[in-house]
Amino acid sequence: MINEIVIISGKGGTGKTSLTASIIPYFNDLVIADCDVDAPDLNILIQGDTVEEKDFIGFQRPIINYDKCNYCGLCHTSCNFNAISEDIIINESACEGCKVCEYVCPTNAITMHDTVIGKIFHRKTVFGPMIDARLIPGEESSGKLVAEVRKLAREVAYKENRNTIIIDGSPGIACNVISAITGVSKAIIVTEPTISGLHDLKKVVHLIKMFSVEAKVIINKYDLSLSKAKEIKKYLDLMGIETILEIPFDIEIVNSISNLQIPSTTNIPFFTSKKWFEFIEYLRK
To answer: How far is it, in rounded angstroms, from Cα 167 to Cα 46?
Structure first.
């Protein structure tokens, strides 16, 4: 059975991707999956050669054959997303691909066609194969793209007999996060000791509980507000979720990222601590 570990956060900027990169060097037989498809940046620290690049078709959008169109306006009045104007012009950014316009068109002037919403990359890194994707800005169906990244990562894992997949998920609680956490072995939630950190942590904890996923929390930069870190731990105790790590703020972590270095591979004291290695052992189980 493949050990699938997802790292997520309630909000952006907590250090989720930096932590994900720091975990990766401690695993052998690994497949890496960057499922933060709206803003993928794991490949900045985990660099590799692109083996394959392909388009991802998320859904279909309509195309109008104006030679057949009689401008009756049925498509315009039937569209619940206001994606077709009165003069029968399609606004692609508003279109959800529901196909109602094709269905109601009396002259068969509208047909649905595949739409590319992003790209998927298969990369070769020193730590193992990495599958990542980039959603075209403004496009929908990020959850479907995440599902495809995870599917391809599993296929590579089975093919190459690799027993662990580490997933860098998206922040928040939207469909892309749901797609990233569904069916995983473990979820690590990264938060920070701020008001917004706690607020968004509560949302993602609620989501995790709904999916019955085994989860633990890391408070990053905990010493920037010891009182807020204490409040977060008190909340997690009430929810029955362990605070598995508290990472202190260290300017050298910032410097290592600025220099495109993985923090855990530099001489930063925290990454040689007993707590860090106990955390890695938990992930390996």
So the answer is: 13
d(CA 21, CA 17): 6
Other beta carbons within 10 Å of 81:
12
Domain spanning 58-116: which CATH class is it, in words? alpha beta
Structure tokens of 168? Answer: 């860098």
Mean pLDDT, the chain, rounded, equals 96
Q: What is each CA distance from 66 to 61, 89, 257, in whole angstroms?
A: 16, 10, 53
Considering the chain, tell me which residue range(s) the CATH 3.30.70.20 domain(s) occupy.
58-116
103: Cβ–Cβ under 8 A, 6 or more apart, which residues? none
Q: Which value, in Å, is the radius of gyration of the alpha carbons in the chain? A: 22
CA distances from 131 to 5, 37, 79 (A): 15, 11, 37
CATH number of the domain at 3-46+127-284, please?
3.40.50.300
Q: Where do we find the tokens 């939630």?
A: 189
pLDDT tens digits along 215-269: 999 999 999 999 999 999 999 999 999 999 999 999 999 999 999 999 999 989 9
